[in-house]
Design brief:
Number of helices: 5
Low-confidence stretches: 289-297
Shape: elongated
Distance between the termini: 91 Å
Number of domains: 2
Strand order of the largest sheet: 3-2-1-5-8
CATH topology of the largest domain: Immunoglobulin-like
Order of helices and strands: HHHHEEEEEEEEEEH
CATH architecture of the largest domain: Sandwich
Structural class: alpha+beta
Largest sheet: 5 strands, mixed
Radius of gyration: 28 Å
CATH superfamily of the largest domain: Cupredoxins -  blue copper proteins
Length: 297
């Protein structure tokens, strides 16, 4: 009789797991509730695969752990009429080896798959089709579209922070948001710098985020694969109007992308907005100002 009870209690977590598995999953659940759709960039599916697989493994570990806890609590509970302490046991080597080796394998596995995907995502393009230098500044963005053949023919866009509507609702006027244009299907290299404090460049649907640090240039490499408008924001608390440091990304056809660059050139926005507009003077390797004689002040 006791054996049958143990089997029934042990079957409960297994049954719960089967019910969840057989319940079916929506597309949103299959992609782990991530805020994008498959194929948005060449990296999105890789990120979703790592995320969802990790959760499946962790849920399986959780079900086994919860099942063992419930089983031990039920099977070894104090029964009516029992007194004193149960038989004390220690140095169960098989169990101790199990709960040492299995977590180690899980950690090493997660590390290996994460390192593999990170290496693929961060691999530079040998010859990018498009290079854009993005400057983060309190609380907006500057975009330099670099002409690799002739840097002097590069064009730029100088943005302002998000403007709230006058109706008191706190809504944002999206028509005035800084907008980064990218051509679909092309290799894109993004150079990231800061003009003042720490920022973070985050295109939400691209599942790609990287810090922008004063005195350092970081890089992103990806291929946008779906035409559309995507939302971006600063993901590093950077001051009073951090919440208004928003931008948009428009992925368009190569022809429309070139038309946009031509429109910037027609507006006279030729050249680069460089470090001369940065406000942070406390950069690494700076030295004290020197007078005409070369003596530090």
């Amino acid at each position: 009789m006791r054996s049958n009870r143990r089997i029934r209690w042990a079957a409960i977590p297994v049954a719960v797991g089967l019910v969840i598995a057989l319940a079916g999953c929506s597309q949103q659940q299959l992609q782990g509730w991530l805020p994008t759709t498959p194929g948005t960039t060449n990296h999105v599916d890789r990120v979703m695969g790592l995320w969802v697989t990790s959760w499946i493994v962790l849920l399986a570990v959780g079900l086994i752990t919860w099942g063992l806890i419930i089983w031990a609590a039920v099977v070894y509970r104090r029964r009516k009429g029992q007194t004193g302490l149960p038989v004390q046991m220690r140095y169960n080597m098989p169990i101790e080896i199990f709960y040492t080796i299995v977590p180690l394998i899980l950690v090493l596995g997660f590390f290996a798959f994460t390192a593999k995907d990170q290496s693929a995502i961060e691999k530079p393009f040998a010859q990018p089709d498009v290079t854009v230098h993005v400057y983060g500044k309190r609380w907006a963005w500057d975009f330099n579209y670099i002409d690799q053949a002739n840097v002097k023919q590069s064009v730029y866009y100088q943005g302002i922070q998000a403007q709230e509507e006058d109706n008191g609702t706190g809504a944002i006027n999206t028509s005035e948001l800084p907008t980064l244009y990218l051509p679909v299907g092309k290799k894109v290299k993004i150079e990231l710098s800061s003009r003042d404090v720490d920022h973070s460049f985050w295109i939400v649907d691209f599942l790609y985020k990287k810090d922008m640090l004063p005195g350092k240039t970081n890089y992103e490499y990806f291929i946008p694969e779906k035409v559309g408008t995507y939302q971006g924001k600063c993901a590093e608390l950077c001051g009073e109007y951090h919440s208004l440091m928003l931008f948009q990304v428009k992925v368009v056809s190569p022809a429309k992308y070139q038309d946009y660059l031509d429109s910037l050139k027609d507006q006279g926005k030729v050249g680069l907005l460089g470090n001369e507009y940065s406000t942070n003077t406390n950069q690494p390797n700076n030295v004290a100002p020197a007078d005409a004689a070369g003596t530090e002040k």
